[in-house]
Design goal:
five-stranded antiparallel sheet; alpha+beta; Arb1; 8 strands; Argonaute complex, subunit Arb1
Length: 365
């Protein structure tokens, strides 16, 4: 097994509660091995084992796979190529297939099948997330940020040339930003949205506000630009990228600290009954191709008073099967030891008073 694959696999085992650390004082010579049966030999020579205190934990292959691939692997290994993503998902999937083929734990067959499907989903979505994070926010969102408030608002960029827009450091001039927004409204906006935008623009009352108490948005539906929209751009604005539309909803990351909400507000969010209007985004076609339902984007979301939204500065993109577990917090954990020896003395006194000289075998976490 090559080093990268081994590291990914060992981290997966450790994330799932398997001890893969070095074994102390467990050297076994050949003469001792000959005295053991086959199962004892495997245990003696094995590199992994499950600690006694972990045997009471719930066994769920699918949840561990989703947690590892969606909330630990992307940010610990930071895969820079699609091959690195496939290396992780294929390695774990092959391990799960081995468990099924050899009937290692037949009582978990359905759960392991679900875990293999999660590997297939992650193999496709994780790299799309990486591409979206590096390619966003796109021309339209950058134009809105330049005109209406945000990271690019009121920045002096008069020396920039629109022909250099593929440069990662490119900043829009205000006249270019206005053109990008107007053509998006005319091509992909609804009639009501375009009319309200024009009315507010003529009155010079267009303004945006940052949507509070959310971490980002979750994709609901994607509407790529139609052939008519592409033709409209080709005839009237060949220097711009055709824009489509995306609908999203407010999202709060369960892996981040909670916002300070009242008990009623928190209950509404936890039960999914909180009333939040859908977000209306406009995105270029190359970005829309990377979006899919239930994709989570962690980014500031702004709302214009004409009825649509924009975002900027994408921090993180999560998969549709994004799962947050506490497993990674226990990696490298060591049982606490009282260096004063007081606890040990107390424990000995309790055992002595237990009666009949019987040791207590109960183990607690």
């Amino acid at each position: 097994m090559d080093p990268e694959r081994r590291e990914v696999f060992m981290r997966y085992l450790a994330y799932g509660g398997v001890d893969v650390g070095p074994k102390m004082f467990t050297g076994v010579d050949e003469q001792e091995l000959q005295k053991l049966d086959s199962e004892q030999v495997l245990i003696a020579k094995g590199q992994a084992n499950i600690r006694q205190e972990c045997t009471k934990l719930t066994v769920d292959f699918n949840t561990v796979v989703k947690g590892y691939l969606t909330s630990y692997f992307p940010y610990f290994f930071n895969p820079e190529t699609e091959d690195m993503v496939k290396l992780a998902t294929v390695t774990i999937r092959n391990f799960l297939s081995y468990l099924l083929c050899h009937e290692v734990c037949p009582e978990y067959k359905e759960n392991i099948d679900e875990a293999r499907r999660s590997c297939d989903i992650a193999a496709k979505e994780l790299w799309q997330n990486q591409e979206f994070a590096t390619s966003s926010p796109g021309d339209f969102n950058k134009a809105c940020s330049t005109l209406f408030g945000g990271f690019f608002y009121d920045v002096n960029v008069e020396e920039n040339n629109w022909n250099n827009r593929n440069n990662g450091n490119f900043l829009m001039r205000n006249d270019v930003a206005r053109k990008v927004v107007k053509f998006a409204m005319a091509g992909s906006g609804t009639d009501a949205m375009a009319l309200r935008f024009q009315t507010l623009a003529n009155q010079n009352t267009l303004h945006s506000t940052l949507v509070p108490d959310i971490h980002g948005f979750e994709v609901i539906t994607v509407f790529p630009p139609t052939p008519e929209i592409r033709e409209f751009y080709r005839q009237h604005a060949p220097d711009l990228n055709p824009v489509g539309r995306m609908v999203g909803k407010a999202y709060r990351d369960p892996g981040k600290p909670c916002y300070d909400l009242s008990a009623e507000e928190r209950l509404l969010w936890e039960t999914g009954t909180a009333s939040m209007p859908d977000f209306q985004f406009f995105l270029e076609e190359n970005l829309l191709k990377l979006c899919y339902p239930k994709m989570k984007v962690i980014t500031p979301v702004w709302e214009l008073n004409c009825g649509f939204n924009f975002f900027e500065d994408v921090h993180t993109v999560y998969s549709s099967i994004y799962t947050v577990l506490c497993n990674d917090l226990m990696l490298g954990y060591k049982q606490l030891v009282d260096l004063t020896g007081k606890e040990q003395d107390d424990a000995e006194e309790i055992e002595e008073s237990n009666g009949n000289g019987v040791e207590k075998n109960e183990i607690t976490l």
